[in-house]
Amino acid sequence: AQFCHCQIVMWLNRSHKILHAARIVRNDRRCEPVAFLDPTDLQLIRHLQDQPRASHAELSRLTGISISTVRRRVEGLLQSGTISYSVYPNVWRIGYRAVSLIGINADYTRVEEIANQLRKIEEVTLVLITLGRYDLFVGVALHDVEDIYPFLKERVATIEGVKDFETFVSGAVVKEFREWRIPQEDLDGHP
């Protein structure tokens, strides 16, 4: 898998409200806009975040746009990969008691290669290439705290280019990404 570098470009009005937004994907060969978002798209996304099972008719009522426009826009958001329908289980409730973050320092010329190897590991829930103290942050879900050491020894330390790492074991999950919503200030004044 090839990694792309993304940049979000937003066009704001004089009140700093988002008029349009685009995610620009950069790789070795090209720079292409992936999705253009206007205020109506942002409203639809926010409503779907709050009510993922909302019908097109319900979204039409909430946004004040026609059902056919809602259908077309939601299909466009899905096709562009801007949104997706997914199931996010509560890992704690299904028996994964050792939810951890691992900060990894790596040979910087191999960061993307290491990230790609990590993303293939089933226990890995998140891989971020980061700027700062660590080159990568990796989320993992394991059954028990006793599983962390073998996981680090056998699955992380053996990856060529990994220099060192630090593990942060979660005592509790207070907020997960699935709970994030587009901030209301980005939606204010939009239909």
Helix content: 25-40%
> Shape from CA axes?
elongated
- Number of discrete helical segments: 6
Major pleated sheet: 4 strands, antiparallel
Strands of the widest sheet, in order across it, are: 5-6-4-7
Q: End-to-end distance, in Å?
A: 39 Å
Structure report:
- This protein is α+β, with helices and mostly antiparallel strands.
- The chain has six helices and seven strands; from the N terminus they run βββαααβαββαβα.
- It has a four-stranded antiparallel beta sheet with strand order 5-6-4-7, with helices on one face.
- A hairpin with a 6-residue loop joins strand 5 and strand 6.
- The longest helix has 13 residues, at 67-79.
- The relative contact order is 0.15.
- Mean pLDDT is 83; it is low at 1-13 and 16-34.
Overview features:
alpha+beta; four-stranded antiparallel β-sheet; three-stranded antiparallel β-sheet; 7 strands; 29% helix; disordered N terminus
Write the layout of secondary structure elements.
Elements: E1 5-12, E2 18-26, E3 31-37, H1 39-50, H2 56-63, H3 67-79, E4 98-106, H4 111-119, E5 124-129, E6 136-142, H5 148-156, E7 162-169, H6 184-187
Antiparallel strand pairs: 1-2, 2-3, 4-6, 4-7, 5-6
Q: What's this entry about, in short?
A:
This protein is an alpha+beta fold.
